[in-house]
Amino acid sequence: MIVIPAIDIKGGRCVRLEQGRMDRETVFGEDPAAMARRWAQDGAAMIHVVDLDGAVEKKPGNLASIQRILDAVTVPIQIGGGIRDMDTIRMYADIGVHRIILGTEAIRNPALVQEACTIYPGRIVVGIDARNGLVAIEGWTETTRTRAVDLARRFEDSGVAAVNFTDIHRDGMQTGPNIEATRELAESISIPVVASGGVSTLKDIQNLIPLEPFGVIGVITGKALYAGTLDLKEAIALTRRYPDEQVSSRLS
What is the pTM of this model? Predict the structure, then answer.
């Protein structure tokens, strides 16, 4: 399992939101690229970047900041927020983004996901953000009637690299990840799952490790790192102490 630090960009600054609400932001830095360098130096195997303005505007809103991140580090970057068409996917792929996250379009235009997976195999991630088990889209401003598990199942055998699963109620709240919902999703599909939302301390990472045999390959964490309740180096070291066979024995 890998620990993936998050950088959420709004107005060119590094911020964190509570439950995805744009009116509940905390600014943690004026330079997202400097933050990316910090996480890279601490050993991050991947960095998760969200264009919050893009999610609302339905098009890239912080491209200059994203480009500076790409120029600053060699760590693979995954991008989400405001990616609604093949031109945007192609643009991000061309400038060196390793993985591209499609959220709203997974509901609105699943054919786009299929096409992107064909053109960019291993580089497309489906972002599933759930509120009470139901998928939320349009920057979390609209809740659909589609269950997170049902949406994920639609992309079996499509070539999706991973599903990023976020429990919105826990995002930015540091109340602990939704272990039960994450496990249910991972058990329901063969696509690898990355957990997100609610991580507060090293104990939360430890609680997620037993889900690895079910297909939970990573965890995204943001506010806990910025608030200082979680140390990235310690979290990475913890996940490396538990090879798959040890995790399996703990579950038996």
Answer: 0.89
